[in-house]
Input
Amino acid sequence: MPWLLNLLYATVIVAAMPYLLYQRIRWGKYRTGWSEKLLGRVPVLEPTAERVWFHAVSVGEVLLLRGLIADYRQRRPQAEIVLTTTTATGFDVARKHYPDLVVCYCPLDFSWAVRRAIARLKPTALVLAELELWPNLILEASSAGLRLAIANGRLSEKSFRGYRTLRPLVRRLLAKFDMIAAQNEEYAARFRELGAPSDRVIVTGSVKYDGVQTDRQNPRTLELRRSFGIGDDEIVFIAGSTQHPEEEYALATWQELRRDFPRLRLILVPRHKERFDDVARLIEGRGLPLLRRSTTSERRPSGSEPQRDDASKRSLTVAAPIAQLSSLDPQPSTILLLDTLGELAACWGLADIAFVGGSLTNRGGQNMIEPAAYGAAVLFGPNTRNFRDAVSLLLSGNAAEVVSDQTGLTVAVRRLLCEESARRSMGMRAQSAVATHRGATVRTLEVLVPALASPTHRPHRVRAA
Output
């Protein structure tokens, strides 16, 4: 099977090469990590009694693992931790949030690449965040004697239908896992139906509810408030994790409402860094003053340096002089653009009203738990299939509202501005709902640590690098 998979992967990469080259030239993507990805040339580490390899695909999963990794290290201080990611943004955030860990790119699922990576890293266990069923990686890890686990396991309806068409292969892969910690019983049932041993699938809850900040006076949020020059009497509307055309919707909403609510501030936070400059041009094209986080003069906290490609560095917008002249007291008409990585979680702490993006597009939504934990009045569109549990929790408690389009967004924001008590009550209900669902990290570690720390039950075999 490995050779067949290798051939399939190679065919896909060749077919996608024009797209990859365009993305590299246009956006600066896919420029780094190819030696690690294609050849498995990750750092060479010395053997140790316990080394756990955590894999997180991108930024969301990297941040998701913070509490889990920290608590694992407290319980097993002798264990070494290695963290891999797939995307460049995930890699950048991982390096900044885990400066004392070995961080590298995960090899693509070519048999030679994963085999070499395992031989070089010499892990004793592999933990996959949410779900990453790459056959060669799992089979090679199992063959090398690694203990395998899935943390915060998630299996959407779409993924379930896809995996069901490959049930014999998926059953073989899931049988290799020593433990699968599922977010809820629905996901657990899907894992079992696909062939995971029932006694190894355990419902632990979602760790996304753990570790989220609730204190609006935390240092990172306060620094953002100072940097953006937001007054205590101003009402902040944040559109975060947005995709095109959601920024346009938020801008239109703000422009219509600010005539009646002159102290309304707008912060835009695009989901992907390659769109930072596009959104800046969108704002400037409407003749609006702009303040970019990457140009503010105040010192940023560690781990929040701007992430921009060469083109964006050469194309500083009018935000630069605005930042120099107005960073301490920008006018209420100034649009604020958070164009740095790793700061959205803190930025949500500024929101009185939060629109969570990716929900008026086909992406399937983004994480609405963070603004809810701060007690913001949370809005999102109808396309939230990736966060059904969180959506159900918030909507059932009257702690969030669904908007169907730009007009609906404007209507909802206007009502929340007019009804301050209703807005505050909605935020309090959201904060309370998040608080009641905490504890998944502890429950996950209670099953994860024994599963990974116990002696391997398969012969350990590591091939030469």
